[in-house]
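Supplementary Methods. Inverse-folding protocol.

Structures were first reduced to a discrete structure-token string of length 186. This string, shown here, constituted the complete conditioning input.
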């Protein structure tokens, strides 16, 4: 189940953590962001590679392709023992946009999206079964934590897949990181 907390641009929280998926969906939908909870019952081993993950979730991918006409599908996965986890984390931690909208379906683990919408930053904690769609040109970033443990199917309408235009802003430094935020949920 996802969690949402809305912050002001200066990093101060403007409300409590929201745990109700219907409320999260409604608040994000008002900003053009889709949030859904999907059944992710396919059994995957922790070492499942891209082809195995896509095969296990092909029906879900087909449903999303029918809805949006995606041209690129991949799987991004990081585990705590990944040798390049620090480099990947730093790449996603910088505020950026995409010319294409981005859809992620979490099939394992969790991650934290930061959506910079108007004068607020929406922290969306996603877990297994959560699907989030970040609209084109929305400034955002993503944190997977110091010891990442997640697996997502990513879908794009462009054949190139994940292409980021970094804003150069340091705004990400003003908000709780994944480890701090997820620790506060316990």
């Amino acid at each position: 189940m996802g969690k949402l907390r809305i912050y002001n641009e200066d990093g101060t929280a403007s409300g409590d953590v929201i745990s109700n998926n219907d409320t999260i969906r409604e608040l994000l939908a008002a900003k053009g962001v889709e949030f859904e909870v999907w059944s992710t019952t396919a059994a995957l081993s922790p070492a499942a590679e891209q082809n195995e993950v896509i095969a296990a979730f092909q029906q879900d991918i087909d449903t999303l392709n029918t809805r949006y006409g995606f041209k690129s599908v991949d799987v991004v996965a990081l585990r705590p023992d990944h040798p390049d986890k620090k480099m990947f984390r730093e790449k996603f931690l910088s505020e950026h946009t995409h010319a294409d909208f981005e859809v992620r379906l979490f099939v394992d683990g969790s991650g934290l999206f930061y959506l910079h919408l108007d004068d607020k930053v929406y922290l969306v904690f996603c877990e297994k079964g959560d699907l989030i769609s970040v609209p084109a040109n929305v400034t955002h970033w993503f944190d997977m934590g110091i010891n990442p443990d997640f697996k997502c199917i990513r879908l794009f309408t462009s054949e190139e897949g994940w292409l980021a235009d970094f804003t150069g802003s340091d705004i990400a430094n003003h908000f709780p990181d994944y480890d701090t935020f997820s620790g506060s949920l316990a």
